[in-house]
Amino acid sequence: MLLAVRCFGKESVKDKLLETQNIVKLEFDNIPKRRLSAGFQTAQRPENHRRNRYKHILPYEDTRVVLRSTKSNAFGYINASNVLVKFGKHSLRYVASQAPMRATAVDFWQMVWESGCFIIVMLTACVENGVDLCYQYWPRMNTEGKVMRFGDYAVTLSNCIEAAVHVFSSLRLKHLPTNQQRLIYHFQYLDWPRGGTPRSLTSYLGFLDEISGMRRHVENQSALMNLSAPGFPFYEATPEYHPELGCHISDVSPPVLVHCNSGVGRTGVYLLSDIMIYSIEHNLEFDLPSVLAMLRQQRMNFVDTYEQYLFVYQCLEEHIRHSRLV
């Protein structure tokens, strides 16, 4: 029987942390890892095997990001998933992706362009303990003005700011066939080992807050844009209906693209903590196990471990405690 522990108020988050860790672990263990009815037809096609960083982490057929087909990618496949969370009139939209590989970097930037992303959240190092976790898909720090070419896309580093545990880069993404450009805000968190949790709770919450501020900025700017104006494309002029999202693409805010190495472990922690903090700040009903279950209905295996799940509870407690002090 699923242990459903409901959290409808801020006090209950602290109460939850006072319960035994065994109860929290049981709660985590009883959340289904994936949607059993989901298909993986495109992800499992032989020609797409090389596009999957890990054979056991695949996007569901009905929530996968679908790219415009090209000669080199006839099925428009990339290992990434659309994630939409609705709170009545409120909604948050994400793209959860595996880290780019050399063979998929072109597809990655095509996805950024076509999905209307302005913010990329990177939660992994490119190499950790000698293991390749992510291809260097953007210009390195201290290479301002350098241009990297990825098929029809050119990426230029405008500026870069290094903080204690993260690096912020402002990138200029240019679609060469149309000569249109978009500013991309790239946030890389540096202090989060694979399979673990951020070493500093306070630093991680500050990172979340900085990205939330940027998201609000992007949403405010997009509200002022003429969506069909040349030179700063946002979405297609004619909104396209997306069955997997259950709405027209212009009905929701621009997506935040989040990736670690696999697009499920650290990515899931980020999505879960971001969504829960958003719900607290907007006085919405929130329920951690139900939100994680809902996320796993859109991409498998979000949040790898019990320790990561517990960390999200700790984030909520710290966020609430800090909010009361302000």
From TrEMBL:
Protein name, UniProt field: PTPRK
SUPFAM superfamilies on file: (Phosphotyrosine protein) phosphatases II
Highest taxon of the lineage: Eukaryota
Provenance organism: Soboliphyme baturini
Domain Tyrosine specific protein phosphatases: 232-310
PROSITE patterns according to UniProt: TYR_PHOSPHATASE_1 (PS00383), TYR_PHOSPHATASE_2 (PS50056), TYR_PHOSPHATASE_PTP (PS50055)
InterPro entries documented for this protein: Prot-tyrosine_phosphatase-like (IPR029021), PTP_cat (IPR000242), Tyr_Pase_AS (IPR016130), Tyr_Pase_cat (IPR003595), Tyr_Pase_dom (IPR000387)
Pfam families referenced in this protein's UniProt entry, alphabetically: Y_phosphatase (PF00102)
Single GO MF descriptor: protein tyrosine phosphatase activity
Domain Tyrosine-protein phosphatase: 24-319
